[in-house]
What we know:
- The protein has two helices and 22 strands.
- By secondary structure, the protein is mainly beta.
Amino acid sequence: MAEGIDDNNTSLNLDFEREAVWTFLPxxxxxxxxxxxxxVAVIAQGLLQPDTTFVASLTLGAxxxxxxxxxxDTESFGGGLIAFDNFKIxxxxxxxxxxxxxxxxxxKQSLYLDSSHGSSxxxxxxxxxxxxxxxxTFRYVLPLAEGxxxxxxxxxLKDGFAMGRETYGNGTPFVTGRTELGxxxxxxxxxxxxxxxxxxxxxxxxxxxxxxxxxxxxxxNTDYDDNPSRGYNLFLRYSKDFGAxxxxxxxxxxxxxxxxxxxxxxxxxxxQNVLAFNFWTAYSPSWDTNNEFxxxxxxxxxxxxxxxxxxxxTRMRGYDQNRFLxxxxxxxxxxxxxxxNYNPIKNGDWGEWIAKxxxxxxxxxxxxxxxxxxxxxxxxxxxxxxxxxxxxxxRAMVAELPVRFDVAYGDEGTNMWVxxxxxxxx
Length: 426
């Protein structure tokens, strides 16, 4: 437990005297939906408590020519992200808080109103609009195994690797590892400016709002949760929108995820080689394919941006964000991750200022293959006619946080993604 600000306040779990490690990371990218954009990310390790991670970023894009309901218009990409992770609640030993949120304006987002497995990539609505997402999560670490003496998941790190963890990972479930129970409150919305022919006629933007709760249990039995080299983890979550307030309609879905990691022999030019597997499946019991809430919108289905979906920066990266979405889905991937010996930033080859203000412990090169599909029923048809993609990823451990740039190719083209954390963490 972190020391408090004085002897009478140790249970506050706060440490105002400890200096956080701040990192500033500029970036730039270009895509069909955003145009050319650039921004800066700020990462702080140890803000208020030794084990917290704070991330904030601001992105601005060049002005893009667009069409809104048949009329010429212009719009620029803009986005903001903020996250604060692993904050121990004052006066507690094993209750933690995480918050995450982003707000974006996208000039040319692609919305697939028909997102079934056999849908055409040409059946897409290109529209400007906003996409916003906010969560607040409380996690309780059960007093089992590692959760007894290390509820924070604290590691001794050296050069981006966890030290003294050679015997951890692959143990008996719940007898070893860390197990958590969690509750997440979420709010998300998506606006659609090109509304003619989309959801309902008229010129007023459509707002697809959703809010609700997610209940989950997770079990981590790896040597290092941010970049595992051995072991496995399990995750089960139930999400529910109760249809209250401005929510478009009620819905729910359940998902299960499992990952497995194998530590391999290194080469002369690598520090670590890992073979990583991930399996994920989801099902929406509420999704009613026989009734409609709005024209062409099934009753009690999940929103366009939630539920049993594939495509985007997490799963099926060779396809557009939320390209496939239906009542049920299945997904599997394999990644070969190699941490290189070569590190021009840490060696100072790119300048002492960069080495000081953008601490990068290592670079990682990853090759991956993915497979998955969605379906309107949860049965063996999910295993037929799977979609595939392949890709490469370039990752770095920046201020003890993995940052990645993924490039993936599927049968509908190539997509690029910039994101924090390993993809299996989502």
